[in-house]
Design a protein that fits this description.
The chain contains 22 helices and one strand. By secondary structure, it is mostly helical. The chain has two domains: 168 residues, Tetratricopeptide repeat domain (Serine Threonine Protein Phosphatase 5, Tetratricopeptide repeat, Alpha Horseshoe), CATH 1.25.40; 158 residues, Serine Threonine Protein Phosphatase 5, Tetratricopeptide repeat.
Length: 368
């Protein structure tokens, strides 16, 4: 399950990605690419493949690609064949965090803390467990404990930084991400975290610089490209933003967030028919996401087809009866509508009352 909430509130905790830097997942990435090429079938032979080390690194590679279901399958196999393995379990826990599998995450946390209280991975898993339950104060304590156990464990600083973002303690979050970079300057999640905070502070130039630094470490991340595109649009570089989003969609053609933002920018540039086509494709990927119907309604309103606009606004309300998306819709209006349309956007947000955002899909890693 992927959620706009995860993307809007703390995208790459999205955790979207790194363990302890590119070196941690590169072996799995290489192995995965060779295996997918079908040129080396011997790589799938049990003596080579069915080992905890190999499966852990391939799981990390899938995790980097935001293929969380595949990553979970591999990590669970690691747990089956090498239940004593601790390495990589912090990534497994973040995979479960993305998939909202609280029972499995709780069990993993208990197993690891019972087995070894002196390894940072165990406390990162415990922190993720409580973060998923929105017990942020407890999660923060566990991430801090992971740092106490091993001050050189970069991922603990990054997870702690994301947790501070959730509690709106941005100065402390900045310090955490900088510490992660101090430990490992190729830890792209930390560069992403800095960019995310600068974006929240509307320091868009700084946000773009830090997102691009993250992308230089992980150039195949559609999520990072998506964030760069959003920032470029905020900097009034709409054509460049569309090119960036096109690159992201080229890497991951069914990434719902990339397609949503591309549709939003097309809408902002008065390309209503192109935006509508994009949204209709997106509706096939995430048929129960209220924000898609909300934006379709705004497109039809611009096209003068009031009855279709009202129908889509109504569907958006039906899909979000508790009003979970209002803040995100306001952000859409702020980022993608001209200032002289403020009154119209207020009317629409009243019609489609909301508060957080959830995008349900089989895919996965913050920002509007």
């Amino acid at each position: 399950m992927f959620s706009f909430e995860g993307f809007v509130r703390n995208p790459v905790r999205q955790r979207d990605g790194v363990a302890t830097g590119t070196g941690a997942w590169l072996p799995g990435t290489v192995f995965l690419q060779l295996q997918r090429s079908h040129q080396y079938p011997e790589l799938a032979a049990p003596p080579h493949y069915n080992t905890g080390w190999v499966l852990t690194h391939i799981g990390r590679a899938y995790f980097e690609l935001a293929e969380y279901t595949q990553a979970e399958r591999l990590f669970s196999e690691v747990r089956r064949i090498e239940s004593y393995r601790v390495e990589g379990m912090e990534i497994y826990s973040t995979t479960l965090w993305h998939l909202q599998k609280d029972v499995a995450l709780s069990a993993l946390s208990k197993d690891l803390t019972d087995m070894d209280k002196n390894c940072p991975e165990a406390w990162c898993v415990a922190g993720n467990c409580f973060s998923l339950q929105r017990e942020h104060d407890i999660a923060i304590k566990f991430f801090q404990r992971a740092i106490q156990v091993d001050p050189g464990f970069a991922y603990a600083y990054t997870l702690l930084g994301h947790e501070f973002v959730l509690t709106e303690e941005l100065d402390r979050a900045l310090a955490c991400f900088r510490n992660a970079i101090r430990v490992n300057n190729r830890h792209y999640n930390a560069w992403y975290g800095l960019g995310m905070i600068y974006y929240k502070q509307e320091k868009f130039n700084l946000a773009e610089i830090h997102f691009k630094k993250a992308l230089s470490v992980n150039p195949q991340s559609s999520v990072l490209l998506c964030h760069i595109g959003v920032v470029q649009h905020a900097l009034k570089k709409s054509d460049t933003a569309l090119e960036t989003l096109n690159r992201a969609i080229g890497i991951d053609p069914k990434n719902p967030l990339c397609k949503f933002h591309r549709a939003s920018i097309l809408f902002a540039n008065d390309k209503y028919k192109a935006a509508l086509q994009e949204l209709e494709e997106l509706k096939q990927i995430v048929p129960k996401e209220s924000l898609v119907y909300f934006l379709i309604g705004k497109v039809y309103k611009k096209l003068g087809q009031t009855h279709l606009a009202l129908m889509n606004f109504s569907w958006a309300m039906d899909l979000d009866p508790k009003g979970a998306n209002n803040q995100i819709k306001e952000a859409i209006d702020k980022r993608y509508l001209p200032e002289d349309e403020a009154a119209d956007s207020q009317d629409s947000s009243i019609m489609t009352d909301a508060d957080d955002t959830q995008l349900h899909t089989a895919e996965s890693d913050d920002v509007l």
